[in-house]
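Hi X.,

You mentioned you wanted examples for the new student's onboarding notes, showing what a folding record looks like when two proteins sit in one file. Here is a clean example. The first protein comes first, with its sequence line followed by its C-alpha cells.
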Amino acid sequence: MLTIKNLSKTYADGTAALKGINLSLPTGMVGLLGPNGAGKSTLLRTLACIQSPDTGSIVFNGTNTLELPSALRDQLGYLPQYFGVYPNMSCFALLEYFAVLKGMTDKSSTRAQINELLELTNLKEVAKKKVTNFSGGMRQRFGIAQALLGNPNLIIMDEPTAGLDPAERDRLHDLLVTISKNKLVLLSTHIVEDIENLCHHVALINSGQIIEHGTVQSLITPLEGKVWLTNSSPGDKANILSKRYQYGRPYFRVHSDLAPDSTAKALAPTLQDRYFLELASKSVVEGEARHV
C-alpha cells in the first residue's frame, strides 16, 4: 500500500535525518518506533508532503506522491507532534475550516461528520469554545478529530497519545483499531506499549535508519527462551535490556542464550525487549566505529 525507496534527507546544518529509508507498509495499524531524535518526525513530514527529501521515492496506492503530492493530500489525515490553532475560532468552526481545506464542499455531510468526530473524541460539549483555550489533552483530541476529517485512506499520527489521560488514551486506542481495518494508520511514538497493543506491523528507526521491521510477532520470536529476570547485575552489561526497582531492589531483564545465574527466571519476550536490544546493539557498533 505504501512503498518507500532510498529516502534520504540532510538538513542545512549537516544533520542527516534520514539515511536511505526503504519500507513497504501494509494496510492496517503500523507502528514507527524510535527514541527522540531518531528521524520519526522527519519521515512523517516527508510522507505527508510537508517537506521534500533529497533522494528517494514514495508510492501510495500506485501513485508517486512526490511527483503528485495533491493526489496524496486528498486522502491524507495528519496529526503532527506540535500544531497551532487560530486564536479566535471555536472548535466546531475550526473543524469546518479544515474541512474546506480538505475539499469537503457539502455543508450538511461535513457538519454531520464533524458532530460524529466530536462525539468520538469527547469534545461535543466544548464544540463552541475556542480551541486556543483548550487544555493540552483537549487540544490533542481536537488534532485527532481534524486528522480524521474527510475519511482519509492514509492517517499519520505523530505521538497522538501525548497529553491524554488513561481514559482518553483507551478511547483513542479503540478508535484507531476500528478505523484501521481498511486504511493505513501510521502511528509514530516512543511508547513501546502503544505499538505492542495496537499494531500488527512495526518499523524500528534510529539515527535516521530503519534497523528492523516486520510483524510484531516476527520481531519477538527470535528472543524466545533468551530473556531472563534476575536481581544480580550481569557481568556483561551489554546484555541488559532494562532495569527496574521493586521495594528498593534492582531487577534486570537480560538477553542471554543461557540463564545468567541460578536464580534467573525465564520470561516471555516483548517488543520492548527487541527494541532495547536493537538500540543497544547499534550503540555498541557505533562505539566500536568511533574507536577504529
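Then the second protein repeats the pattern, sequence line and then C-alpha cells:
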Amino acid sequence: MTDPKNQDRDLQTRIVQPEDRITPGFESFSVPVARASTVVFPDLATMRALVWHDDSKWRYGLHGTPTTIALAQRLAAIEGGEYALLQPSGLAAISNVYFGLVTAGDHVLVPDNAYGPNRDHADWLAHDFGIEVTYYDPMTGAGIDALIQPNTKLIWLEAPGSVTMEVQDVPAIAAVARARGIVTAIDNTFSAGLAFKPFDHGVDISVQALTKYQSGGSDILMGATITRSEELHKKLKLARMRMGIGVSADDASLVLRSLPSMKTRYEAHDRTAFALAQWLKARPEVAAVLHPALADCPGHAFYERDFKGGAGGLFSIVFDERYSAAQVDAFVEALELFSIGWSWGGAHSLAMPYNIRSMRTASQWPHEGVLVRFYIGLEAEEDLRADLEAALVKAFA
C-alpha cells in the first residue's frame, strides 16, 4: 500500500526515494548485481560496531558487495582456500601481495621464469622503495635454501612459467620457506586453480589473474589473492583497503557467469593444445616443444606428480636456430586463426614471439632459436593444425 506521507512530497524526492513494491519470491541461477559505493546502516550503533576485516558485515562498496563476496567465496572453494580478495587485475593482485607483506629493507626471491610484469614490479620496488630482490633459477628446488637471507620475507613461485613452461618443485621450495618462517606466494594463473592446488603443497598465497580462464571471454580485467591463513588474509585486506583497490560488481557478475563452464573449457583447451604440441614436436622446423605434459619439458616429473587435470591451452615452441627472428615473425603474421595478443584464457587462439635471453638474469636459457608461445582457444583442432602448417610452409619453405 502506498504511504500517504509520500504523496505529499515533491516529485523529485519521490524519484530519489521511491516506494518500490516488488513481488517477493523471485529466484534465478545468477547472483544479483549489487552495486554500491555508499552502504546504508540501520542505525549508528551498527555502524560503530563494524570491524574492518569482517566479511560478514557491509561497510563500504569498495570493500565488498554481495556480488563481489560471492565471487570471492567461489574462487576460494575452487582453489581449496578459505579466504579470497578481488583486485582489478592480475598485476594488482601481485601488487597487493608485495604491499601487504614486505617493507623497505626486506628481501624477496622471484623465479627467473616469472610473469614479466611481476619482474617489472619487483625491479620498481627495489629501485624506488628499498626492497631487495634476488632472481633465482626456477629449477632450484630445495636449493633455494642457499639464497635465503636473514631479511627474506617472501618467495614467489610460478609453475609452470607462463612463457618458458618450467615446472618448479613447489613442495620442496614451500617446505624450505615454511621451516624458515617465510611466506610463499604462487602465480597459479596457468592452472586456474583447477589442475594444481597450491595449498595442498604447502604454499601460503595463490594469485590468480581472473582475466584468463575464469573470465573466458577476453573482455574482463580482474585478479584475486587466495589463502587459507586468516592472518595473511587480514594483512592483504588491510593493504588493499589502504590502496583503495576495488572491483566493479558488474565485472564480478560476468566472471560469476563464466565460472560454471570453466572446467569444461579448460579441459577442451587442454585436449587440443596437447594434440597440437605433439604434432609440432615432429615438425622439422621446430627444435623444442615446451609443454609440461611432454616428457622432455623441464620439470615434467613435478608436473606428473603434482598436477591433476591437464595443462590448459598454453605452451611454447622453439624454432630451429637456423631460422631468423624475421622469419619467425613472418610465420606468426602468416597465421590466420591465431591472433597476436598478450593475454589468454578466452575462446580465440593466440601466438606471440619472445626473446627469452633478454628476459633472464639468474639462469641460462639453453635454446638458441626464437620462442613462440601459443594459446590454443576453442577452435577445431584440425583447423588450427591446417593454419599452423600453412604458415610454416609459407615462412620457412
